Amino acid sequence: MSIKDLLTEDMKQAMKDKESGKLRLSVIRMAKASIKNLEIDQKRDLTDEEVVTVLMKEVKMRQDSLEEFAKAGRTELVEQAEQEIAVLKKYLPEQLSNEELRELVKASIAETGAAAAKDMGKVMAAVIPKTKGRADGKRINAMVRELLQ
Fold first, then answer.
1. Per-residue confidence of the chain (149 residues) as pLDDT tens digits?
2. To 10 degrees, what angle do helices 98-112 and 137-148 make?
3. Do 96 and 11 touch, CB atoms closer than 8 A?
4. Which domain holds residue 79?
5. How many CB atoms lie within 10 A of CB 110?
6. Number of domains comprising the chain
7. CATH assignment at residue 72
8. 81 & 12 share domain
9. What is the CA radius of gyration of the chain?
10. What is the pTM of this model?
11. Which of 67, 89, 111 finishes a domain?
12. DSSP 8-state code for residue 20
C-alpha cells in the first residue's frame, strides 16, 4: 500500500472517529493537499519517495514553528505542533540511529576523499541521497561537521 493510499485510509478513519480524530484529520488533509498541489504542478502522480519528501517538509515547517512558539512562550501552540509532528511521523520511514548515520557519513567521507570542513558540501551531496528521508538535514549536517573536524 502506498503512502498516499495509507493517508486516504487514515483520513477516512479519522472522519469516522469524529471528535477524537479532529487534529489527525486536519493534519492528514493538509499533507494530502500539499501532495496534491505538487502533483498538479508536476502534472503527474508522485512516487512514494517524493511523498516522503513532501511529508518531511511538512514536519520541518512544524518544527520551525515549534521553536518560534517556544520562544514566544505559547505552550498551547507548542503542544499542538508536537501532536501534528507525531501524526506526520507515522508516515515517514524509520529514522536512522546515530550509529547508522555516523557509518553512512564516514563511508561518504571516504568516498569523496574529504579532509577538511571546506569539503563539507561534497560529503553532504553524497550522504543525503543515501538517507532518503530517514535522517533530518540538521542531524546530517551536524554529524558531517563533527567528523570533518
1. 899 999 999 999 999 888 776 899 999 999 999 999 999 999 999 999 899 989 999 999 999 999 999 999 999 999 999 999 999 999 998 888 989 999 999 898 888 888 888 888 888 888 988 887 788 888 898 998 888 88
2. 60
3. no
4. 3-89
5. 11
6. 2
7. 1.10.1510.10
8. yes
9. 18
10. 0.81
11. 89
12. G
